[in-house]
Amino acid sequence: MVRAFVHATCAAAVLAAGCSSLMVSEPAKISDGAMVAPNGMSLYTFDRDPVGQSACNGVCAQNWPPLTAPSGATRTGDWMVITRQDGVRQWAYRGKPLYFWTKDRAPGDRTGDGVNCIWHLARP
Q1: Which residues fall within 8 angstroms of residue 22, CB to CB, at 6 or more apart?
Q2: Is the model's pTM score more than 0.90?
Q3: Which run of H or E residues covers position 96?
């Protein structure tokens, strides 16, 4: 009986480990009321983006690089993946594409908030 329990417990652990590798974790977390990427860098939204699309291309995307999504990423909760004009896959939260700001130098920097009155910290 003990042996059967041990085998069942091991099997459950192996199954759980396998399943966790299939789950997609959220691409950002909340820090001081704003969204940050896994690297700790602040994320921003652009007022000119239509829901589910990015209007920031070319030079704009050089200054505001998108939060890219890996090829296997799919919609989960409020998170969705959009395809940009250049074919790059980008994370969006509640339909708003998310971006970095090149002038932020270190995790926690928020220098892009309010730029041209159209860029804002991403908030949940």
Answers
A1: none
A2: no
A3: strand 96-97
